[in-house]
Specification:
The structure is a homotrimer of 347-residue chains. Chain A has four helices and 40 strands. With 347 residues, chain A is an alpha/beta fold. Chains in contact: A-B, A-C, B-C. At the B-C interface, strand 22, strand 23, helix 3 and helix 4 of B face helix 2, helix 3 and helix 4 of C.
């Protein structure tokens, strides 16, 4: 398993400064690395850790100044380079054995690809399709007509509801639900009547979704998560939402019905979005924000209700001074009163 | 499948203005509708979409003014009328086949109703009862003594814990847990000791609960969700809470222990409630609000901590002006100082 | 089942004032207790309920003043004493039968302890270990190499991913996921590339975790929940976090990657923590707070962003006065202007 540093430089696509013949035994985070291991520095701001690390080699940004007392691999994207090193030292193991477990229940008229794995007690509905090399872990349940592309991984206890569609290379972590009914009720005579949710969910290629996340099917039409988007755990995507391409959404975010999120957005944890709004491409949303109005894109918003991040910082700073300000105001009032009295006396 | 517009008017209970003989091929949202389809306008404020829609007919509020260049069905409750049209074009399909799947495990002394469906790998405990026509999807697990009424739907991977009680026509979406232990611990000597949670959960008739929601059992007594209430995904209901009738709770709301929510409330997404408080009937709670004190009812509250919505809007507006206000205060201080100096000079 | 009050006093370790020979039939909350039952008063502030309760006996704090018209058991820790009474009246019932259900799938080279219970359709991976007397409920799924200690309870539909480690007496409620992949992606050329999450999760002895909670595995190294910590439902613990000993975390809290929470902390519901920060021992965090910076410990913080609780209360109070303050400021401006004009006239 140990690899020569020169080989690691080549695998990661970086430029080595140091002895290529030393052996590296593993990868580790900068503060946990032991002698023999390689670590990385993604960002200049963590440079303070450099002096403390016990790692034997480092992957650093190629524009990082300074001399190092250890061999370094300079890389344009140290995090990506490190990822490649991680893969070399931790080659992926198959989660379960290839093939269809004898206990898996497969419904009528369901089409299965080649080289796939279906685990124990998985239940696949009727008229489904599962692509080549896809891994369906134990306890996964697909409703009738659900479609899954090639090279997907559905972790244990994932539920795909009837008719939902997944592209290729989609990863869904445990307990995530795709296609539960949207939250739609018509109020009549003081009671709520269920609006049948007859739409579906489409998840495009290369999407990864964390555990215990809920993505509701559309009332009519579709809820859609577009290519390359990555979503974390415990997220709520309501009916008829659309999330753009290459967008990242952190844990516990909630997006209300029919809201459209653009491409290349970055959304912080626990943020919430009102329904029926549009958030443009390249928007960054701070954690915990409440986005109640449309956002044009190419901007960062934060706060509750969310506003331009710079404004929010000013408001936050001012709020901090608020108790002091109240005192000052009281003093000013007294000084004005005194002035008024004195001026009266004068007259 | 195509239906005459006149028949749709009759089914939806509306009044048709236009040719009853034209054929309608489906239902769609106003912005997605294609020629041949019918759509609806729930609310005057979406009237701007009217000119753009390609739908061949519309369901509109009966008090909506104006002439339409298309046939319209006027309805007192267009959303409800539309729901009826949706049902006609999308008649519900059975989720799974009737009957008890050969792999379902049914515990001793459990009573099963007639015409029910129990899916593959469902596990029903001992001394349970499941009512007539209820659908228990694959992977659903009922603890000992759990009771489910008639015409319920328990979607895949729902868990009902021991002894919980569901009424009739209850729908629980995937991954939802009813009856997990309440969060109760007694601190003694710096360590937490589990308080046994020996109470239960009662969910009354016509309640629908979304996916991945958690409803804890009571420490003693019961946690109760009352008739007709609708709850969305990823909601937390703590031990000994009570939620009233015909209340709607949006996704990711959290209600702490022993809190009582009234009837006909509307609670926005991600709102949080402190424990041991009472929220009166007909309360509206804004999304993301933190309700820390009792609310008397017949009101709207918002913000963190929640206050009357009108006050919160004033506070929000004022906060926005806060940085400006700090500048003004500084200027006033200078003007006062100048006045004081001048007045001194005069004397 | 009825017990003499004298015996209850002995079991709970309290001092009885009253007739030891009366029979007690059950335990109940103070507002729900019926004649014949015993209840408790944990805290002086609930003393107002004393006059109303129909209970036949009370457990009260030993320093509680006043005469009672009913027998009382005085206790240093009434909540703990009450817990002991609850256990006596509600002795725990086995959740499922002892032994390994015939449908459980056990992978190769997995070691099982004695006297354990494994429920229907549980799937245990290869090379796992499950300790003595542990209860694995139906539908639980363990990935390859997962290790579970003695006397644990894994409720239905819990997922333990490959290689995670649980200590002894760990309780995980339904639908909780331990070891899903951390949310780590390297951005390159506008696309996100998955960083393999090759670390693990370690959960130490006596930890209890609620339902539908997600705990991600570390990128490298481990995510760790330390001894005696209690976590509620729907919580997000990101990769590489560490939560200290004897800490309590309420529902829907989210902790971002690599953050370290100390021992003996109390974290309110829906609070959020930024990544890569340290929160010291004995920290109390108010519900709904956003902890964006390190906290030194032995303190209470609240608000968004979180600050010392006392400061936050001042800010909240000031915010409430903000609309009023804006009006006052306007009046002061007018008075100053008037003063300035008059002073000008004088000159």
């Amino acid at each position: 398993v140990p690899l020569r540093l020169g080989d690691i430089a080549e695998i990661t696509g970086g430029v080595l400064a140091g002895d290529p013949s030393i052996f590296i035994t593993g990868v580790a985070k900068i503060e946990e690395a032991r002698p023999g291991e390689i670590t990385f520095l993604a960002n200049h701001k963590y440079a303070k850790h450099l002096g403390e690390t016990r790692a034997s080699a480092l992957i650093v940004p190629d524009d990082m100044p300074g001399n190092f007392d250890k061999p370094v691999i300079r890389s344009k994207n140290p995090y990506l380079a490190f990822m490649k090193a991680v893969v070399v030292f931790h080659p992926p193991k198959p989660l379960i054995e290839k093939g269809i477990h004898s206990t898996a229940v497969i419904g009528e008229n369901t089409e299965l690809g080649t080289e796939l794995s279906i685990g124990a007690y998985a239940v696949i509905g009727r008229r489904c399709r599962i692509g080549h090399r896809t891994i369906v872990m134990p306890g996964v349940i697909l409703g009738d007509g659900a479609m899954v592309g090639d090279d997907c991984v559905l972790h244990a206890n994932v539920c795909l509801r009837e008719g939902v569609v997944l592209g290729n290379r989609v990863i869904l972590h445990n307990g995530t639900v795709v296609g539960s009914d949207g939250f739609g009720f018509a109020l009549d005579g003081g009671k709520y009547h269920k609006i049948p949710q007859v739409g579906t969910v489409v998840i495009e290629d290369d999407v990864e979704i964390g555990s215990n996340t809920s993505i509701d099917r559309a009332t009519l039409g579709e809820t859609r998560i577009k290519r390359g988007t990555k979503m974390d755990n415990l997220i709520q995507i309501a009916h008829n939402c659309s999330v753009g391409e290459d967008t990242v959404i952190a844990a516990q975010v909630g997006i209300a019905g029919s809201t459209v999120i653009g491409n290349n957005c970055r959304i912080g944890g626990q943020a919430g979005f009102a329904g029926h709004i549009k958030v443009g491409d390249n928007t960054t949303v701070g954690g915990g924000s409440g986005v109640l109005r449309p956002v044009s894109g190419n901007t960062m918003v934060s706060g509750f209700p969310a506003r331009p991040h710079r404004d929010e910082l000013h408001v936050q700073a001012a709020m901090h001074k608020l108790p002091e300000l109240l005192k000052e105001l009281k003093q000013l009032k007294e000084r004005i009163q005194k002035l008024e009295q004195e001026l009266k006396k004068e007259c």
